[in-house]
Amino acid sequence: MATDEVTAYQLRLQAALRRRFPQASVQTEWAAMRIEPGLYSPRLDLAVGPFATDRRYIDEYDELSQVHAELLRSLFTIHSQNLYESGEHLSRFRFDHVIKRNQNARCYIAIEIENKVSNKHLMGGAINAAALGRVGLAVA
Prior knowledge:
By secondary structure, the protein is of the alpha+beta class. The protein has one domain. Helices cover 45% and strands 19% of the residues. A four-stranded mixed β-sheet has the order 1-2-3-4, sandwiched between helices.
């Protein structure tokens, strides 16, 4: 995919997420630590709020996870299938454990869209999504 195609995909995904999460802010190129001058802050390609820049939203994220459990379970199933097809025949964690794992999330959903990048950048994007979101997704 060319850069223009990635940007177009990012905007289509943003529109779809706005329809799915009408009460939440859905932002592109969201920087978690932008309120801290001089502090490095990775930018997420897409982020769904609420955004925890001044306090935690643990209960709110738990509630969103319950409301959107069907969507999240389908994503977890796809993840598990990807693991299986890659030779990992047993998931290390259960869905109920994974969905509450990141209690220090800065946003509800963090998405990194990766195109033709090195393995290093692919891993960095996945780590940023996992560290910053209650639900972290890396899309290749």
